[in-house]
């Protein structure tokens, strides 16, 4: 089993729908992150959490919310999906500072039509 | 201007070639530099990590940081078809600051 598991792997949803992307990890790391990847824009940080009680906005948090249900679980929600949220979403974990190795999930390809 | 610039490619080379991948950055405060490799339909994986200036070698891979020029490079010797992937540079100001990623360079190594 993968150390960082994202579900679903692929999702097509309609504009205005609420959607949740889930992430679970078996690494035992405290730090978890959500990124989105777009062609020509690279990886951009949406939200991050350093422990269960800590949630922080990244550079592109508008239109998104997160929930840290447990050390191992971090979910990303799109309250009302819009087409420009079509992207590849990655969850990641790390056990130390920002400059330590981040372990990424396989990604969720989200299409908003 | 983006903080980190990276040519998206694609870069196509024959098997056995030496590959040079590069990133430039604008903020001289960056101290930690990383290269991630991302295969198609997979998440990125850390390939190389360097602190401040200098070179670091790991097998066929060499990471080089030139802070005076704000330029980092990844060299791949004796490239193999299995090296075909997207390579993303990433950097941070310190252990307490976020990573800033380049856009990634897509590399294809042909037989």
Q: Would you kindly provide a written description of the structure presented here, covering whatever features stand out?
A:
The complex is a heterodimer of chains A (113) and B (111). The mean pLDDT of chain A is 93. Chain A is globular and about 35 Å long. Chain A has strands spanning 4-7, 10-13, 19-25, 31-38, 42-51, 54-57, 64-70, 73-78, 87-94, 103-104, 108-112. Chain A has 113 residues and is mostly beta strands. Helix content of chain A is 0%, strand content 58%. In chain A, strands 2, 4, 5, 6, 9, 10 and 11 form a seven-stranded mixed sheet that branches. Chain B is mainly β. Chain B has no helices and eleven strands. In chain B, strands 2, 4, 5, 9, 10 and 11 form a six-stranded mixed sheet that branches. A five-stranded antiparallel sheet of chain B has the order 1-3-8-7-6, with no helix packed on it. Chain B is globular and about 40 Å long. The chains are: A mainly beta (113), B mainly beta (111). At the A-B interface, strand 5 of A face strand 5 and strand 9 of B.
């Amino acid at each position: 089993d993968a150390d960082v598991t994202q579900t679903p792997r692929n999702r097509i949803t309609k504009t205005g729908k609420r959607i949740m992307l889930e992430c679970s990890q078996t690494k035992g790391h405290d730090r978890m992150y959500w990124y989105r990847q777009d062609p020509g824009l690279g990886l951009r940080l949406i939200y991050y959490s350093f422990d269960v009680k800590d949630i922080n906005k990244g550079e592109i948090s508008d239109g998104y919310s997160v929930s840290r249900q447990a050390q191992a679980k971090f979910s990303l929600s799109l309250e009302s999906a819009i087409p420009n949220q079509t992207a590849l979403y990655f969850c990641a974990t790390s056990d130390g500072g920002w400059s330590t190795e981040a372990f990424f999930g396989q990604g969720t390809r989200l299409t908003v039509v | 201007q983006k903080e980190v610039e990276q040519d998206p490619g694609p870069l196509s080379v024959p098997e056995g070639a030496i590959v040079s991948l590069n990133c430039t950055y604008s903020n001289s405060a960056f101290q930690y530099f990383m290269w991630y490799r991302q295969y198609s339909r997979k998440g990125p994986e850390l390939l190389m990590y360097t602190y401040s200036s200098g070179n670091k070698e790991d097998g066929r891979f060499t990471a080089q940081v030139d802070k005076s020029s704000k330029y980092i490079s990844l060299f791949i010797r004796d490239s193999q078809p299995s090296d075909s992937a997207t390579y993303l540079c990433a950097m941070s100001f310190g252990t307490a600051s976020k990573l800033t990623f380049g856009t990634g360079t897509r590399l294809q190594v042909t037989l």
